[in-house]
Amino acid sequence: MQTNLPTENTTTDRKIPMDLPEFKINRAEERTVTWSVPWSDLMMVMFILFLVLFVFSLREKDRILPGHRTPASVSMSMGGQERLSMQPLFELIRERLIGYERYLNVAFLDDSSIVISLVGANFFEPASARISDQSRPVVSKIGQLVSLAQGKVVITGFAEDHAASDANAASKGAWETAAVRAAAIAEHLVQETGLNTHLLVIQASGANLPLSPYLLDPDNQRQRWAEIRILPSSIPAG
To answer: SS3 letters for the chain?
Structure first.
């Protein structure tokens, strides 16, 4: 009895089928994978870039070449500087003169000048240029503040408008009274505070510009007797 032994090629020639799943790549998956920045990092980069551009724009805005400055820009720049330089003096005058409202008014004008108006019937007697005794302490207190000024000090005198209804409204007598009143205020300021006389300008307005018309204020309770105008140092008196 002959037995056939299996040879070595018996197992090698035999094919065993493998049931493997078939993988298919979609078109979307065929795209090349790219590197991406996290959203938070991207926002941080954009913020830093915006900040740098903003600072750069501010530097360029503040850099003004002298050859490209227009007269309007120069005027606005000087006006702002003058107002800033006069603001502390105005605040000091207004603070120190609290309680004297019945004797004066303090105003800060658009041209950066400070105007102190002496009002009421207490400063001068009618048609007189002599400062009343009760008003001298007030004028002295004003002088102490005016002496701090760096620019010109213009003192304008006024007179009553009693004759405003007749032909002598602008008479020489009214104008002289106003001028002497301004001079009396100036002399008192110089004597009491040592105000530099080179800074003083005296002028008169007569009776043509009353603060309160005589018909509305016959007792001169609201009359303006003098104005002390403090100019910025860059503005000439005129």
So the answer is: CCCCCCCCHHHHCCCCCCCCCCCCCCCHHHCCCCCCCCHHHHHHHHHHHHHHHHHHHHHHHHCCCHHHCCHHHHHHHHHHHHHHHHHHHHHHHHHHCCCCCCCEEEEECCCCCEEEEEECCCCECCCCCCECCCCHHHHHHHHHHHCCCCCCEEEEECCCCCCCCCCCCCCHHHHHHHHHHHHHHHHHHHHHHCCCHHHEEEEECCCCCCCCCCCCCCCCCCCEEEEEEECCCCCCCC
Closest CA to 120 of 95, 108, 107, 138: 138
Predicted structure pTM score: 0.59
What superfamily does domain 78-230 belong to in CATH? Answer: OmpA-like domain (3.30.1330.60)
Question: Which pair of structure tokens corresponds to residue 156?
Answer: 């304008």
Beta bridge partners of 119: 224
What are the boundaries of each domain within the chain?
78-230
At 148-206, the pLDDT tens digits run 988 999 999 887 765 444 444 445 577 888 889 899 999 999 998 888 888 899 998 86
C-alpha count within 13 angstroms, C-beta hemisphere, residue 59: 6
